[in-house]
Specification:
Number of helices: 9
Shape: elongated
Distance between the termini: 51 Å
Order of helices and strands: HHHHEHHEEHEEHHEE
Largest sheet: 5 strands, mixed
Number of strands: 7
Structural class: alpha+beta
Radius of gyration: 39 Å
Helix content: 55-70%
Amino acid sequence: MDRPPGLSVRLKLTLSYAGFLMFAGVLLLAAVWVFLLRYVPDRALIVPGSTGVPVQEVFPIRSSLLRVFAPRAAVVMAFLLVFGLAGGWILAGRMLAPLTRITGATRLASTGSLSHRIRLPGREDEFRELADAFDTMLARLEAHVAEQRRFAANASHELRTPLAVSKALLDVARTDPDHVTGEVIDRLHAVNTRAIDMTEALLLLSRADQRSFAREPVDLSLLAEEATETLLPLAEEHGVTIETSGDIAPTLGSPALLLQLTMNLVQNAIVHNLPEHGTVWVNTTISPESVMLTVENTGKQLTPQLVSTLTEPFQRGTERVHAGHAGVGLGLTIVKTITRAHDGTLTLTPRPTGGIRITVELPAIIPPTDS
């Protein structure tokens, strides 16, 4: 934004300091006038019983005092002006030195350099608080930008794969007229379906991350029942039993996004399970300030290091048991983003006997108190 040039803050503070000092000097002179000079007589005094000669040498009159006092007062005021300007300039520079460092860091950040930190020394005050807040913002912004770059690179790689496969299939079909057309079509259909699923997942991530949704009351227990009923055929196909229980868990959010969150959790629990006779537990609980949706399953034992990476984009838990459904690698990433968009927390914990326990905690709807 183009702005017309103006006075610097340092100059403004300097003028303010000097002006205040001059004002204090004027007040001091006024006090001298009011409380001292007003009691000095304006005429020479004649002492009773004397020869009648004025005794102004002994009792000075007001005009004589003013004649002597005024030049010296002017000199003092001039000294206060010079002292106020010089001292104010130095003091303002010392006071604004932290702000200069913060401004320099801001300019560096505006050029794309997010690794710089102010690290302002000294005891806590407003400038240090501002510098610490700015450093924290830079750290979060740097982490967010790095995450977005990594996500964009991974997404580009993942989307390039089905496109490359489609191109290869079409090239084969074009160069080999005797190739079975139905087989090519089936493989192209599968590849395009995967690309569509990937694109829809990316759009869902963008929508949830921008929090561009209306909030309304939602019962997590009903969403859990809907998700388990929808995914029951998938569970039967994988030989997995789903057990649902829990309390009514009212929260505030997007029903569509929270249903997607629940579907992703249950689907992951079904797909990444034992090869046969696996179990998935879906439970909802409520506390005075939050509601919790917990999904846990049986499966291979997982390490805490592996579990900590499962919410990263395109991490499919390759050390877990798959059953022919690799997914697009964004299931738990979507869960994490939706949870964060609803001001909740996501906790992943490996089960001692194998499998994983995932808990989503969201703010509860607090009923109004009767007054």
